[in-house]
C-alpha cells in the first residue's frame, strides 16, 4: 500500500506518528500536496476516529501532533516513572553524546548519525531534564542542546570541558558534511 492508496487522514496519522513531535499544519499541507479545506476535513475525521482510543490529536498555534488520550495519563505516568528509574542504556547514552558534542542539533541529524529514529530516546532525555528543546535556527522544528542540569551532573561548567570535545565535534561536523554531500563515508 503506497501513499496514493492511503486516505489523506491515514497519511496525516502516519507522518505524525513517524515524526514523534508536533508538525506545522502548513508543512503537512505542502508535503501532502492538498488544499487547506481537505486537510482540515481529514484532521476532523482523524480526531473523530481516534475518539475513545489511546491516542488523541493535539492542535496548538498551527502545530498538530499525536498524543496520548486523557484517560491514559495514569498508565503513562506509571510507565514514565518506571522509565526514569532505569539506566539510560546504550541508545540513550549514544543520543546524549551526540547532543553534548554537536548540540544544538535537530532530530533529523541525530537520526542520521545513529541510523535509527530517535524520537523516543529524545523524549526520555527531555523528561529526565538532561537536554532542552529549543526552536531550530532555520525555523523547521526543534533542536536539542544539553541542559544546565546535565552539565552540573557531569561536573563541568562549560561544554568544551568534555573529553576530546574539539576533536569529537570536528568529526561530527565532518560526518554531517558527508551527509550534505550524499557521501556516507566518514573520514
From TrEMBL:
**UniProt entry tagged with the keyword Cell cycle:** yes
Instruction: Say if the entry is tagged with keyword Ribonucleoprotein.
Output: no
**SUPFAM superfamilies registered for this protein in UniProt:** Winged helix' DNA-binding domain
**UniProt entry keywords in alphabetical sequence:** Cell cycle, Cell division, Chromosome partition, Cytoplasm
Classify the source by domain of life: Bacteria
Biological process (GO), any one: chromosome separation
Q: What is this protein called?
A: SMC-Scp complex subunit ScpB
Task: Please name the source species.
Answer: Candidatus Zambryskibacteria bacterium CG10_big_fil_rev_8_21_14_0_10_42_12
Q: What's the source species' lineage?
A: Bacteria, Candidatus Zambryskiibacteriota
